Amino acid sequence: MKLLQKISCLLIAVGLQACVTGPKYTPLTQETKANIGTASTYNLIVQDEIKPDVDLINTTAALGGGLIGAMIDSSVNDDRATEARSGLQPLYDEIVDLDHRKTIADKFNQALASSLPLSDIKDTAESIILGDKELVAKIKKLAKGEAMVLTNTFYQFRMQSKMLQTISTAFIFLNSENPKISKPHYFNTFYYQSPLIGSGGQNSINEWAADGADLFRSELEKSAQQTADWMQYDMQTIRDEKCIAGGVITVPMNQGSLKVKGNVIKDENENKVLRGNNGHLYIVASESVTKAKVKTCQVGE
Questions:
Q1: Are 138 and 120 in contact (CB under 8 A)?
Q2: Do the Cβ atoms of 264 and 289 come closer than 8 Å?
Q3: What tens digit of pLDDT does each residue of 200-227 get?
Q4: Cα(289)–Cα(265) distance, integer angstroms
Q5: Which among 96, 272, 283, 284 could bridge 193 via Cys, Cβ 3.0 to 4.6 Å?
Q6: Is the separation of the CB atoms in 170 and 28 below 8 Å?
């Protein structure tokens, strides 16, 4: 499977640290930034609509692997996905005009342009994944001083549709005679979690869909803006990042959830931002953060 296809699959599942090994957090250095004279962008969203929250089963593992377990999993999970998608119809009916690719391109390009000298800016995100060979060829063709920026975004309902969760990755590549896609010059992952809406299931979906899906539209746009803002922040080569308190959050997955520990670096009335021990940034509702002792945090624990 190609790297960017893997990245898309990982975003669908939950994020990089929950699945196969992917690129690790790679800060943007002053040396790298100084070598960038111009940068092109490739903002990617492979999906055309919000994905439903589906609790997948894993009978295969319980049965010790094998074809029978896999067939059971596939059949039951397909039925669950179909049922979940059908339940989202009230929301789908209200957002037929929504184009999140344009929103992402607008927000991300503005943020990236404040950090990098962008060129060839497009007003909508892409829908086609670049294959490894194609991406490597593009990187090799970069002239001295040229860079390529790739972003990938996935958005989905979680926690019985009470939460909107988005995951975005960002890569920067500079020219190289032997580029390694798994080792970009910059890489990070950005998570956004909305406050919990409704009591779950159809009740939450109906609230997301109410009044022309006003709540869903505003929250999805907020996720794009907040992600863009923190992407811009993260691409600073010098920053005075202090820990306000150690914290732990829960990242829902298709099967279970993942606990992430780190430093709370921003604390507002509605949102907190946590720098995970993996370097990733999590923009979440304040009530989603539980205090925890973290070795890298010296205060507020």
A1: no
A2: yes
A3: 999 999 999 999 999 999 999 999 999 9
A4: 12
A5: 284
A6: no
